[in-house]
Write a structure and sequence with these properties.
single chain, mainly beta, about 170 residues
């Protein structure tokens, strides 16, 4: 079907630490459980209501998987972009089951850590103060670390400098 889009954007909290597995071919796969919540006031009782949805997220991107494994912990707030995929499997009892997941593919997908370094748990404070190692997350949008499939986040000019400081000849 021409003109269709399969894109999912989630902003939520991790329900547990990432689960890291390797395929038979040696590729790293990281699974996350992300909770998103919706709140509203009930019109009749004027009480605050909340509904939480749980999402299964699978990361097939090696670099994003490394970031998730190293920096994500239960309770961290994340921004994710991926696509929906439904797959069929057979359970222990021989029953065919279906599961729908948000998938961050090898060359597509985005992962942004949203909460501040002090709030979120994850790596120890010393790791953050020293800065991320090569291949780790870089500082970026949304006040957190950013890693995008296929590149190392957004580079920002050094403090006091700018890409637009060139002299204009007119």
């Amino acid at each position: 079907m021409a003109g269709s889009v399969n894109k999912v954007i989630l902003v939520g909290n991790l329900g547990r630490d990432p689960e890291v597995r390797n395929t038979q071919g040696g590729q790293k796969v990281v699974e996350l459980r992300v909770a998103t919540s919706e709140t509203w006031n009930d019109r009749q009782t004027n009480e605050r209501q909340e509904r939480t949805e749980w999402h299964r997220v699978v990361i097939w991107n090696e670099r994003l998987g490394e970031v998730a494994e190293r920096f994500l912990r239960k309770g961290r707030k994340v921004y994710l972009e991926g696509s929906l995929q439904t797959r069929k499997y057979t359970d222990k009892d021989g029953q065919e089951r279906y599961v729908t997941e948000v998938v961050l593919q090898r060359f597509r997908g985005e992962l942004v850590l949203l909460d501040s370094r002090a709030e979120g748990g994850g790596a120890e404070a010393g790791e953050y103060e020293r800065g991320a190692p090569a291949g780790g997350p870089s500082r970026g949008g949304y006040g957190g670390e950013r890693e995008r499939g296929g590149r190392q986040g957004w580079d920002r000019p050094a403090k006091g400098g700018s890409d637009l400081d060139d002299e204009i000849p007119f």
